[in-house]
What we know:
The protein is an alpha+beta fold. The protein has eight helices and 18 strands. It is globular.
Amino acid sequence: MKRYLVTMLLVVLIARSVSLAQKEPSPSPPPSPPSGNSGSTTSFPVSNPPVDYNGLQRLMDEERMNTPEPATKPVTITEIEKTLADNRHSGDGKLAAILTKLSLTERANAPRLSRWNSENSGPQTRQILMALADGSAFLPLPAEDIPAAPAPSMAEQRRMMTAFAKFLGETLPGLPNFRATRLTTYFVDSPPRQLSLATDPAAPDPLRNRPMHVVDTSRLEVTYAEGREAKERSTGFEVANHDPSRFTTAGEFGPILYGMMMDALQSKLVWAGWESSPDGPLAVFRFDASKEKSHYSMKPPGDAKPQNHFVAYRGEIAIHPSNGTIERLSVVASPTPDDAVAEADIAVEYGRVEIGNRFYTCPVHGVALSKTPLSGARGKKQDQPLPLQTQLNDVSFQQYHVFRGELHITREGTRQP
């Protein structure tokens, strides 16, 4: 029944969205997502308290306090690859320090990051390359990664979406019970804070700008049984704070896809362009979901039973045009000025994994990015914007294996033997 309902849902979606797409011209590269307060993410991190940076210089004077270090330098894919080539023999620490001063203006996809890692074996360099690539996950691809091909006809777009409907209606519900390891690397930056001299001059220095760096890692075993992830307790897809200084996502094993398609049904699904992949060109579609029709929620910390806080967002999916298999999705939320987050994005990449001697399409990598105002910071003027702190999660799913235990999941999401 679930397969039938999902398939019928997508059939209706195809007929509605393609007719609406005819009213809109097809852009050649995919448009860049909104930035700043107008869009992005799926996290609801709260601001961190001041951090002791282990012996960094203390407060000196007002001029120092009001002269923040320069921001990172925006560079293209071509420019960062030249930087890597020019500094290949500089040593791991020096190259990593050079990279921390850069930020990408184009998306570094998985094959490109894999090539960078193969050419740069230093652990510090690889860590920064991961942060750079993850931070670019919501940007447009460089021109060289966009196939020079015309937009498909409306009939071909309908065929692609019909194939995607079959994937959602048959392939995902057919996943076996399994377990997988979720590895998360937590990155954060520490922007400068402009504080007044009224603050304690003997306090640890909170002003030095510290670029994106790793603050922690975690390893968690997740269980997928009877069509649901065991830890799920709500419908739709979401981000939540289980730790005041960190954020996480939920729904990678299906709910994000199903929730996005429910929202696309009530929105305008349009052709966004082609993008390259190791297995050939991918077809990219996008839509904008309003807050009233959104299944994308953020959960604030603190409450034992927090209310879902739904936000508007832009959704994008990249599928294989021949069979409709999902390769990538991204969600770029549009928080309102009243929200505690300025930006919040998630992206999930899917791939073929082996479970019980068979291959299935499952999540293999995810990115969650947020920017929030830094607590305790203020500028020279009361109306000066607060500096934003960026939090970034890199998530990889590994070690898929069949789960043969007797696990039953109730409607409330609790587990019973």
